[in-house]
Every structure is written in C-alpha cells, then in structure tokens.
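User: My instructor asked us to take a sequence, write out its structure as tokens, and then describe one feature of it. I'm not sure where to start. Here is the sequence I was given:
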Amino acid sequence: MDDPSYAEVRGIDVTMLRAFDALIRERSVSRAAARLFLSQPAVSACLKRLRVAFGDELFVRTQYGVDPTPRALALAPGVESVLSDLQRLMSRHQPFDPAASDRILRVAGSDHLCRTLMPGLCQTLGALGSRMRVSWSLADYSKTAEELARGDIDLALIPRITQVTGVQTSILCEDSYVGVARLGHPVLASGLDLDAFCAWRHVVLGQSRSVLDDTIDSQLARLDRRRVVQAGVNSFSQMVDLLAETDLIAVFPQRVARRYLHALGSRPLPLELPDYRLHACWHKRSEADEAVVWLRGQVIEAIERTL
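Assistant: Let's start with the prediction itself. The structure tokens for your sequence are:
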C-alpha cells in the first residue's frame, strides 16, 4: 500500500514549486508568469494544483494582485530551500551545458547595457539551440544587494556598489564622464565651461540622489555655484529622447555618449569627476553556480568587444 505522505509528495512537481516561489516574490499572477516565461493560465493551473496539494487557498486575490495566506508564508522558506537544493544537486552531478540547459538567468543593469549586451547573448544562445532564457530588468541600485541575496537576480551590472556581506564584485571597465546635449545645441559650439554648465538645465538618471549627482553638486558648492536639475528619468533611452527634443544637458559616461552620436554631441566637463566604473555583482552562493559563471564570462567577453 502506498504511503499517503508519499502520494502527497508525488502530486507536487518542480514547476509547481517554481510557480509558488514566483507568486511569493511577485504577489501577482501576471508578474509571476512573466518571471517564469509561462502563460498566466499555466501559472493559475499550478496554483490550483498547489491548493489541492497543500489543502489551503495559499494566495488570495486582491485589488492589486494576490496576497499569501499564513500557510503560504510558512511554506515559503521551505520551498525556496528545496529549489536551491535541487539546483545544487543538478549542478553537482550534471556538468553545466548551455546548449542543454533550460535555466532562467536574471540580469539587472541599465537599458544601455541591455541594448549593448543582450543581442549578443541571444545570438549565442540561438546558435547553441539552447532553451536558456535571460531576463533583463532595470537595476535599482539601492536594492541590488537585497535582490542578489533573495535570488531575485543572478547578476547585477551597476556603476557603483554598496559594500554588503555576501556580494562579490568585479570591475568590468572604467570610463570618464562627458557633458552631452542635442546636436545643434548652442553649448556644443561655444563649449561647456562652468558658466554654461550651471546656466543650462539638466536631466539626470534616476528619481533619487546618486553618487554622481552628489559629487557634481558638492564640487559646484565648493565653487559657490549650483546647477538646476529640471528632470529625472529612469533610463538612458528616456534621457536621450528628452535631450534630443529640448535644450537640456546631461552628464554621460563617454562610452554611453558614443552610442548616441546620431542624436547627441558631447563636450569635456568643466569639473574633475572620478572615473565611471562598471561593476559586475553576484551573490557568494553563485560562485559555484556554473550557469552564473558562464553568464559572467559571456558578459565580460561582450564588454571587451563592444564597450
């Protein structure tokens, strides 16, 4: 006679556990589906089976998505541990082969890096006939360490880091900063001296303060000068669009500015700024994850070729 507990375990598969984990993290069926590269009906079907298996509603629909029940919250650490153990087991006994893998790897970085790196990554995976999937999200620099620790992302490509235990880092490249403006902007002809830098209004990357912005404004304050920041946006492409249609100016890494030569011109800055440094960041548990190691290698090679 079958053991009833074995029958219950037999009714749960890895896809269901992944769906549970995604729902815990995203609190939304649609976002969980996007996270897993599945359809919403597929995630809903998993949730239905999970409810039967655990004898609990697990997730209750709300106006904004789904909320986990107390039972789901109690199960979450165990499910995360099981998935991590399964991943380690597969990695230990089955050498990583990108052509045979169906891993989902998650990268956080700027939209500029996405435009620069993702085409090559996708071409490589396509040439291998791989079922691996790479999910790219815009990095929230203030949450990078937390997201790496939770496993929400596998690799972060960011211009600065906060020293947090458990996060490993490597410098991918260094660059200098330049001032940028639309083609035909008067400042490109006259030059970007300190008066012009302070007179023209700025657009900055991000809605909150950054190390770069603090450094610029601190240097200006020492000179008893200040600039006016008129707009803050979330991506380089938004900045480029805004700069191309207005007389705003901005500060870009030189390599980024070169990508947008069709729309922007650049000039040296009237301030001495520390060099831009692009960091790759990953959690210490990924040191032995061959898929993440492979991804880092692909990113390093692509940056050496293109940046």
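For the description part of your assignment, you could build on this observation: The chain is about 50% helix and 20% strand. Try explaining in your own words what that tells you about the chain.
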